[in-house]
Amino acid sequence: MNTTKFSVMDASKAFKKSRTTIYEALKNGELSRDHDGLIDLSELIRVYGNPIGVQSSTRTEHAQKNVQVHVQSEVENVLKDQISLLKNQLDLANQREKALMQHIEDLTHRIEFKGQLEQSTIENEEHKVPTPNNSTMTTDPRPEPDPKDDGLTTPVEKENKRIPVPEHVEQEQPKRGWLSRFFLPNG
Q1: Does the global pTM surpass 0.70?
Q2: Do 76 and 41 fall into the same domain?
Q3: Can you give the pLDDT at residue 139?
Q4: Containing domain of residue 113, as a range?
Q5: Phi, psi of 3 (to 5 degrees)
Q6: Does residue 47 fall inside a structural domain?
Q7: How many domains does the chain have?
Q8: Which has more pLDDT, 83 or 53?
């Protein structure tokens, strides 16, 4: 017999009620039986309160201990699952942080390298000595404007590029209807 279910006789002993009283409660709908014909402990407690007597308290304590142990083990399992999930999330967050810190360090090195490169280019341009080919030193990064045509000089002749045209071009055949394709000769 399950410890959380009682027969009518066991319920009458545990709760100090007559069997007739329990049968009347079942008939009136105050109590309900399970499909196996037994009455659940929670139903009896709901209607009659806590059980009275040594035998019933032993059953109740045993049932309560089983429920407590079961609930406690379920809570422990849920907590263990949550702890492992949180550990995994923490590990992933630490990996992301490490990768981002490395990325920041790389970007910082690039910025420093670019600053050093620009400074060395400026220093090289300052120390540049004019040569016969390069008599003026240009520091203006803007491109020089194209010389305008003043009309006084003759333009430089450019190569004349011609598009080749075939000497003889055949005319297209006039379009024909659908039936004429079958009944007229091909021309």
Answers
A1: no
A2: no
A3: 59
A4: 69-126
A5: -75, -20
A6: yes
A7: 2
A8: 83
